[in-house]
């Protein structure tokens, strides 16, 4: 895992020519997880280090490293590390389009999804500061395990800016289709859900609300940086975030997210509440 991380980090730092302008953004995330109403899981924590390096124009490379621990009530704790790397090209390969491709690797105590590999590709066509539409394709491969599981996820999206009460609000709608090709977790193989996101920036403050309804399993979220690899069925969620920018380069954020889920193979249902504190900045 360490060899992969440092190799990809070296590629990131070399992705931009030395003579070109370099724009860099880094952030750290700390999250506390609470499984309310569950007899199976208690709580947990997660931390992420994120780096984005680009040429201030068309090209950018992102790297993220996450460590997660989940405490069970009657079973041993689960420890997991996730590594994500992505490349984005904006308005260069294709006019008015942003192309993004990446890879996510899982090192986990969960035997069914340990050494899991996730590949993602996203294409977005945008009319600047007006509207955008696109499609994200994610494929999760857990072929090494006895289940030989593969998961395909398709997420079309449409976003636009709205004028509401003299404020400019960005609204984005996402549809999620997930298909798993092996009998792992839920007996059903196809999952459908819809998500709505609203965001607003006013001066140094920014705000975001999001919610989704339907069913999800083995979902890929946050542009490939978050993978729900445990065999649980999620039934919906709500989230809110507030951010404050200061010193021209820094941002402090607080995100509270609540999701409802059913643990695989049991009648145990839980309310997962995740509280995340973020600090980031340009350098």
Characterise this structure.
The chain has 283 residues and is mostly beta strands. It has one domain: monomeric porin ompg (Porin, Beta Barrel). The chain is 5% helix and 67% strand. The protein has one helix and 16 strands. It has one helix spanning 2-14, and strands spanning 23-36, 41-54, 59-72, 78-90, 97-108, 117-127, 131-142, 149-164, 167-180, 190-202, 205-216, 220-221, 226-227, 233-246, 250-262, 269-282. It has a 14-stranded antiparallel barrel. A two-stranded antiparallel ribbon has the order 12-13. A hairpin with a 2-residue loop joins strand 10 and strand 11. It is globular. The two termini are 27 Å apart.
Highlighted features:
283 residues, mainly beta, Porin, 14-stranded antiparallel beta barrel, 1 helix, 5% helix
Number of beta-strand segments: 16
Supply the number of helical segments: 1
Which regions have little confidence, pLDDT < 50, spanning 5+ residues? none
The average pLDDT score comes to 92
**CATH fold title:** Porin
CATH architecture level-2 label: Beta Barrel
Domain count: the total is 1
Rounded Rg: 19 Å
CATH-level-4 superfamily name = monomeric porin ompg
Q: Given the C-alpha coordinates, what overall shape results?
A: globular
**What can be said about the biggest beta sheet?**
14 strands, antiparallel, barrel
- Percentage of residues assigned to helices: under 10%
Instruction: Give the ordered list of helices and strands.
Output: HEEEEEEEEEEEEEEEE
**Share of residues in strands:** over 45%
Q: Name the structural class.
A: mainly beta
The side-by-side strand order for the widest beta sheet comes to 1-2-3-4-5-6-7-8-9-10-11-14-15-16
Termini separation: 27 Å
CATH class division: Mainly Beta
């Amino acid at each position: 895992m360490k060899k992969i991380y440092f190799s990809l980090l070296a590629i990131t730092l070399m992705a931009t020519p030395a003579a070109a302008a370099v724009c860099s953004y880094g952030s750290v995330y700390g999250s506390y997880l609470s499984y309310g109403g569950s007899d199976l899981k208690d709580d947990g924590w997660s931390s992420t280090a994120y780096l984005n390096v680009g040429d201030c124009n068309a090209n950018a490379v992102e790297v993220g490293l996450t460590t997660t621990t989940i405490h069970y009530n009657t079973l041993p704790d689960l420890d997991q590390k996730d590594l994500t790397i992505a490349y984005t090209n904006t308005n260069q390969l294709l006019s008015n389009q942003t192309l993004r491709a990446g890879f996510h690797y899982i090192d986990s105590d969960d035997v069914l999804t340990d050494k899991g590999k996730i590949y993602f590709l996203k294409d977005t066509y945008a009319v600047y500061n007006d509207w955008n539409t696109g499609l994200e394709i994610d494929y999760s491969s857990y072929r090494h395990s006895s289940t030989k599981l593969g998961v395909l996820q398709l997420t079309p999206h449409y976003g636009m800016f709205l004028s509401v009460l003299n404020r400019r609000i960005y609204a984005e709608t996402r549809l999620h289709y997930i298909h798993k090709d092996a009998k792992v977790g839920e007996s059903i193989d196809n999952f459908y859900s819809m998500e709505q996101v609203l965001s607003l920036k006013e001066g140094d403050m920014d705000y975001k609300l999001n919610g989704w309804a339907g069913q999800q399993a083995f979902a890929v979220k946050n542009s490939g940086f978050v993978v729900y690899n445990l065999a649980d069925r999620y039934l919906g969620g709500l989230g809110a975030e507030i951010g404050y920018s200061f010193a021209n380069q820094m941002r402090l954020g607080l995100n509270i997210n609540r999701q409802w889920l059913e643990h695989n193979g049991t009648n145990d249902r839980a309310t997962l509440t995740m509280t995340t504190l973020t600090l980031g900045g340009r350098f």
